[in-house]
Amino acid sequence: MEIENMVANSALIKAREGGGSRGRSWKWKEMLRFPHISQCADLAMNIERDYHSLCVKQPIGKKLFQLFCRSRPDLQNYISLLDALVISFWIVLKKHGEYAGLGFDHFQRKRHLVVDLHKHLSGEPFIQYQDSMFFDRFLQWKKLERQPISKQLFRQYRLLGKGGFGEVWACQVRATGMMYACKKLEKTHVKKRRGEAMALNEKEILEGLNSRFVVNLAYAYETKHFLCMVLTMMSGGDLRFHIYNVGEPGLHRDRVCFYAAEVCCGLIHLHQKSILYRDLKPENILLDDNGNIRISDLGLAVRLTEGKPVRGRVGTLGYMAPEVIGHEHYGMSADWWGLGCLIYEMTAGQPPFRSRGEHPKALEMEHRIQKQQEEYNHKFSPEVKDLCSLLLTKDPKQRLGCQGLKGREVQSHSFFENIDFRMLEAGLVKPPFKPDPRLVYCSDVHDIEEFSSVKGVTLDQKDNNFYSKFNTGSIPITWQNEMIETGCFRELNIFGPAGTRTPDLDW
Ligand code: ADP
Ligand code: MG
Ligand code: MG
Q1: Which CA distances in Å does 293 have to 13, 22, 175, 264, 276?
Q2: Which of 123, 262, 471, 502 is the most exposed place for a label (fewest CB within 10 A)?
Q3: Interval 407-422 mean pLDDT
Q4: 193 shares a domain with 324
């Protein structure tokens, strides 16, 4: 048993180290061979000709449009100016942090200039781009992106965790060497427990998001027995593991502050998209190999139509807000309560309404959450205590985060005094803790319970309708980023013998 776990771990560590070009299959160029342009005719007919989507949002589209502009003497200056503006923006940000020194006006002017440049480029240049070889190449990449996805595309490594409907495994794309986590939902389990809507909901919400503070979905596909979501690999383990399994329970103040700030940014991003998360707890907050966190497990998330509140007692009892327990209608307030619980637990090394190892009955828990004042011991500084008690306000109308400022008031709290949120959102803050690349931050393979098989469930045509909604293949932005990050784009995107290299600039 011990040996089995060690073998599984070392295989995973080796794959992680070789992630990127060394992890590619020797047949990788064949796997990513461009289709002939004549095979892209249907795509050319049907693809939506939207400048923002084709030339700004999609990473490969953006690169090819840049290359097109650079190839044109009359457009070179536009693109150089755009790059210069964006670069100077980041450099100033990096050097001085928040808009220091340079007035807000300065940045407003630059922002306007960027908007004007895009306005110009989206006119005549965009039309000409669509007639160029660069756009043909874009269509070829798009065609590759839309290839059907099957499990043969991936290598599978060790089991990372277990969820309600199945397991999460480490995996690697054979063609690119990219590591991901594959969440596999067992079809029979989903059917037996009527989890279809929930599975589809999780997949559809994830595919509409693109935030550095939420796990990204890269592929959604099906096999004979499973529905699979391929997600950003989070090698650093979950916060539950770090709070309880490393040293004394609880985390150092700097880490509490950093993780809380990143979760706060993630929540604000979700709420801006009208998505209420509803499942905030340490085991759903995962660390990547640099030590940044992402929110994961969006199975309980809901999109609020027109901001209308919802009802429903969902979540994990210990972390549910009083208004959720009380069968009331609620909105984003439930997530700010969750953040309060999380900050409390990271600081104290135990959740707010229950001591470690204590398992109160459900009714008792509900009573404590709705009526009892939580206690703060010596581990709480005045700032963190103040923040927790404001977030754990029983009345959602009085709670911090619920005053109509879309969460910005949480970021302004004095506990976050030393956090520069603009830098954080740009990914320019160094995390206070970096996971050890030689360690595997999850339970031993054999400690993760096996999934019991379900008997007496047969799959029929109605199930297939649902599977086909789920089975949509690659998610464009994540897939294109994979091609760029692993170097496959650079190595394959060659035009003729001269072989143009692409500049790595970010708009
Ligand atoms: P469920 O919805 O059933 O709770 P989760 O999405 O929370 O399933 O996944 C179950 C477990 O799998 C997590 O607690 C975590 O240990 C592991 N896990 C999930 N997603 C990832 C990921 N992207 N990277 C690494 N491990 C993950
Ligand atoms: Mg979970
Ligand atoms: Mg879930």
Answers
A1: 20, 26, 27, 11, 19
A2: 123
A3: 95
A4: no
